[in-house]
## 1
Amino acid sequence: MNYVKEYLKAIQGGAVIVSKRVHKQYQQLVNDIDNPGRYIFDEEKANRPIEFIERFCKHSKGEWAGKPVTLELFQKAYIAALFGFVDKDTGFRQYRETMFFCGRKNGKSTLLSGIALYMLMADGESGSECYSIATKKDQAKLVFDEAHNMVRQSPDLSRNIKKRKTDLYFPATMSKFQALGKNSDTLDGLNAHLIIVDELHGIKDRQLYEVMQQSQSARRQPLLIMITTAGTVRECIFDDMYVYACNVVDGKFQDENFLPILYELDSREEWQRPEAWGKANPGLGVMKKPEDLKRKVEKAKNNPKDLSGLLTKDFNIRDTVYTAWLTFDAINNQETFKLEAFRNCYAIGGADLSITTDLTCATLLLMDKDTEKRYVHQMYWIPSDNFEKRVQQDKIPYDIWLQQGLLRLCNGNSINYRDITAWFIEMLNEWEVSPLWIYYDSYSAKYWVEEMEGYGFRMVRCIQGARTLSLPMQQMGADLQAKRINYNNNPILKWCLTNTGIQTDRNGNIVPVKNQSAKQRIDARPPCWTLMWACWTTTRSLFRQCKGDEVVPRGRKKFTNLKDKKVRLIGYKSGRTETGAPTQVYYDLCGPVWANYRSLSGSEIYFAKQAGSQQEVIFTVNWRRDIVAGMYVLYRDKAYKIGYVDDLEGYKKDLKLYCETSSAVNASVLKGILEALEE
């Protein structure tokens, strides 16, 4: 019998309720059966493991203990698809990796134990190495122990399989089945034929998955089975594999060796609709009692603390822990944007500075003036000295984020705040995104603020407390749920938000707190809250000029204090040519410096000429002692002669250099300056 076709027939006839992605996947499988290409469906090979399990394996727990395993149609269809599609030339299996996603208490352990014993004894692989892995060895042993119990209850299996100290051993082919824990540092050198990843959502160590997957490279037709419910830890390997599986089902990715079977609710709201519960629970009514599930649902309606566990474990809805500020559905937004679309635009900036352990984050908040939709662009930093250690110990994918360009490293064992300054300047010069002001948390920010102000950025302190953050948090939460904040699907920010909880004071104000362990950072939080506060209070001013109420289209202010132009300050001294004639020798005073550049207004030029001056442009640079009238400013290969230096009454912060236009500078002078720089 072709169980794949039988299952699709039951789905289409309404006898079985499944998720949209399960329906779509089995439609594709049947299409592959009817229209074979490189791979064909071998019904005999498809049914062989099914017959093995039902003939030799027995239940060990509950009301079915001691009775032969009788697989349900959804289990038979899955096994048939997994083992039945083979290469028409070699006969080897098509599917090498699979994700089986279904709610708890749907016979996962029994299914996996049966498959493991088949792969150990009857798959035709000599020296087969089969492993069950999980975050904790006790979890991995659930499948192993169930397989051992099946062996003990079956005379045929017990005669052929021996229980050793750490594994089940099949002497006829020198094969073994063993449970392994998360210590991936000791797993190199394995030669796995079957890998069962039990409860993938609990595995934070990406290296564990990668090491085990690489251990299969020498096998002819290895199999890696990931079986799991949803979880509450975000941006871990589970999220990566789930998104990948969805993309394969949806046709966005082509992977002919990956089989995704995703039993889940199609939307979060379906958890209160009993007729939809079967979408995430294919064994409902046989393996899983509807009365128990109904009781859990009613309890969760009255106790929000139970809801997160119900959604993730019984309905396969990805969520955050119950103490989280927002649900994963509210946070998750896969919209993206190109920063190029905001070239020559205003922004509001924010920064959260750390020293050694926490992430440092810089943020630009941009807005669409028509829709008032928020767009968030960010960069993160951590020290380079402990980078590898943090990837290994924290089990957080900093290395992946670094490769994606979402994270940068600071040399040494602490954060170099100059890197944050350089990023804001980079945004200004390369993308022409101008922060009207930048909010900062005053912690350890004194010298950095002075540096930023030296470059002309306007810095505004943000005090982080219940009075200042409560209203912005509420506003930001509402906007996240309404999908009015596009954060470019940044996984770091998404991860930080899912790890954010709330604390409520006696006045009903809320403040963000870390929701999980110390390793679960929420360091992206402060810029977001300060930006949200700024956005909430200054939405209109973000797109208006300083005077009047004239709406400015996307573009920069005509007058700005930002030192966003690179110039060179050129001095000169008396010298002589090779023939002994007197001349001026030009030299670079200090290398490139940042300056603000503007032309004098008409009235300023008029009064300057009345005073006999030819100055028409102003360069504003950081204060220094060695600039005097008569020197030159070189900007864009044009020389401007300094006619007057205004030290702003000795304030020692800025210097204003009033200069003649480049056309007033003799060509021979410019030639001499350029030649001096070349030397």
## 2
Amino acid sequence: MLISIRKVEALLRIQRERIGELADTAPSYYRPYHHTTRSGKSRHIDNPVGLLRQAQDRILQRVLAAISLPERMYGVTRGSIIDHAAAHVGQPVVVTLDIKECFFRTTANKVFAVFKNTVGCSPEIARSFTKLTTINGALPEGAPTSPLLAAAVLAPLFRDLEAFAGRHGLSASMFADDIALSGVHPQDVIAEVIGIIRRHGYGVRARKVHVMPAAARQRLPGTMVNRKVSVDRQYRRLVRRRIATLKGAPEIPEWVSRSIVGQIEHVAFVAPNQAVALRRLASRFLPAAGSDEGRAATQKDPCFCRRGRFEFDSRAALRSRLHDSPSRSDATVRFGGAGIEREDPA
């Protein structure tokens, strides 16, 4: 139980008056931007800074650390992509689904419930913590508290999903916002699974629902699971090609070296034997250090989207999120009788 404001002062190392002021002015402590990769993909980052970021770090370490998640919810407090993959090795069919805009749809009401009911805070303290860890009625991207809070909100969803899978003889696991089911004919229950997800206030991306029989590549995040946990052959070929293109280059930027080394280390983490040849090839062409000149792996662009703290001014949309109801503007397609959300048309 956390019902004493004095205890909160000690946990956050901030005086109670300052806590209230910080909670009420929390939106002013965000510096949103768009994170754009070399491939052109863009992701909104809310980017908490200053005293708010310090408070969020302490909430994570001293308030949320005791939260217990289901055993097969991986990637936040326990487990890795290897554990997630191991639950589905050698299965006749693997189905994967991706929760759409997980943080954006984890509303302030859901976060308040975690602080009040799961952590055991008094309503007053739960409201303050909710203000400190949400923006515009939802979890912020880039806040240290968001992954664990999202997982805590999703835990009841996963428990329902795991119980449903068990009744149908299927294996279920979750890594962050990626859900995997495997067994005999899991594709036959996709509609019911989506129904469970939607009942908890979330949606599914149509383009990220994948049905993978054993005769095809069965891919989970960063891995393949047909016969054993391994790295996709195409991924390893891509890394080899990246290394080969460096042959004869007069100078290799440091960010390129770091990127390739990171890819090799991923292979080594999942399947050490598959990384041996890549490391040997990299040792021939990659310098120990290179120039960082011209780095363009990622860039930060100013945020002008509706998620930014200055742009989210739609009262109807905000009210919809605060009341845990899906936005009416979401487009849907039909899949086995259940709605799967897709991107709104441009």
## 3
Amino acid sequence: MVRRAGLFLTWVMWLCVVVSPGWAAPRFGRPGTYAVDGSPVSIGAGAVDTQAGRDVVTANEAGAEGPSLSILLNRGQGSFFPEQRVSVDASTYILHAVAVGDFNADGAADLAAAVDNVTEFPIRGSVLDVYLASGLLILANLTLGLLISTRAQSQFQAMQMMIFVFLPSILLSGFMFPFAGMPKLVQWIAEVLPLTHFLRLIRGVMLRGAGLWEMWGDVLALAVFTLVMMALAILRFRKRLD
């Protein structure tokens, strides 16, 4: 964060904040380093106390005891006192950013933090659609398992064969990497995987409030995959009986 002359230049590092006092733009004084809690991800500046000068507040994503806010009160001449730490409930929140300001106009500084509440999983669509989409994925994977079992000679061999399905499903379905950023050939391969269509369904229901009927293409893809895998498993099972 860069300010004009008379203020300061600050940036965050792994476990500290580096502050350079400003003298005359664009010149800054010798930087000072101040320890804060672990993994600072955001920084804010404002008058936290009643003393003159701007103070610094950092949002720390992974501190010694979980997420926290580190407050560095201005000592004057571009220097700061050691941090004052405010802990955030690690079992409830993931901390992303912090801002300093007088938000309620009472003359006292306030802190606003941007967090994710890990205890809340909003479902904007129908819970029934979530169960139906999950059921389709389970059926698709079960029929795939049946087909593999007709080929495998042992449980260990079946587990080894599943790796060739499990890893592509995790890497190519859009679960770990954006689907749209993949090459076209990889996208065509991913369209065969049940997890690709399930992720589209579950994201549509939970994030956009869409119904399964609006995403009928992915529902159809899972149904066709299930029927094809079941048919192939039945054919191979009959051959082994003969």
